[in-house]
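From the pipeline queue, job 12 of 40. The input is one protein chain; the requested action is below.

Action: predict structure.
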Amino acid sequence: MTSLKMFWDCIFSPRLVKIYGNGPVERLYEPKTFEKWGDQVINSLYVIWKIGVYTSPFLVGMLYQRGYFEPDGLITLTKLVTSVGVILVVSFCIRGMGRAENPTYTRFLATLQSAQKDLSPSIKQQLNMYDFEFKAWPVEYKSTVEHSDSNPKALSVPKQLTFPQCLLQIPYRIIAYFAIHTFGIRLIYPGTIGILQMVLGKKTFSFYILESWIQTFDFKNGT
């Protein structure tokens, strides 16, 4: 019987890709049906959300023209957002249930949690047998020493703007903030685009990439 804590831990735990080993132990991770269904729904909603972010300037204008920012339209949008939110929560729960019922995944998660508490050489060796989302890898180095420069460089202080100039800058700052935090940062770093990551994650596109990862790990010791 799956414990409530295990179920909760599996809801937001990282995606497992492969288990390394010798002979039949080495294999790609096969998610259970519930985990597969939950992942498909979550990824689909994620793609829809990202498309909405990229097209938000046009989408907001279209919704405004059709009256969705009026009281009746806002009620419709609220119902839509609530429905999508319920579907997303249920999908996370279904995925967590599928992972919690999978012994292979629970062993990986136990190893990962042990490494996050104390990354000893033996635990790290066990964790190296799994290929998973790198963002969940335990922190191995953390600087706590403040480094000071004996000859600090003089800082240039920007010229103070007058009050009318500040007022004129407000629209430009709002537009710049919106652009940078929506599509700007993703254009600078294309690898952060979720849609691109999802496409590369599909079996059709990622087979050769995944095979290269495996060969690098097995024959070149991950170097």
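Job complete. Residues 11 and 92 are 6 Å apart (CA to CA).
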